[in-house]
Amino acid sequence: MTEPRPRLTGPADLRNRIDFSELLHALCRQAVGDVHLDLSEMDFVDAWSARALVEAAGSLAAGELVLHNPPAALRRLLGFLGEQPRLRLDP
Predict the structure, then answer these.
(1) What is the pTM of this model?
(2) CA distances from 73 to 30, 41, 53, 59, 77 (A)
(3) Does residue 84 belong to any structural domain of this protein?
(4) CATH number at residue 41
(5) For residue range 48-91, what is the model confidence (pLDDT) as tens digits?
(6) Is 59 within the bounds of a domain?
(7) Which SUPFAM superfamilies does the entry mention (predicted)?
(8) How many folded domains does the chain comprise?
């Protein structure tokens, strides 16, 4: 049985980018291993928020930030940023 993972919904944009970033960093700070996020219900992620995901992944002491079912636009944005060693997209 797989553990439930946090599910993020709605947009990550100018209106909530600070809260989004703080949430990501809080999850990564308390992590012992991989951090799994379900993004299947996110409908928009701006470039600033995509960068916040990369920074949060980089702050992990060990493990990876695993993004499950990220929106296609986020996949494209992360592709522009290049490969990130602690960030993984699934699928």
Answers:
(1) 0.92
(2) 28, 13, 14, 23, 6
(3) yes
(4) 3.30.750.24
(5) 999 999 999 999 999 999 999 999 999 999 999 888 999 999 98
(6) yes
(7) SpoIIaa-like
(8) 1
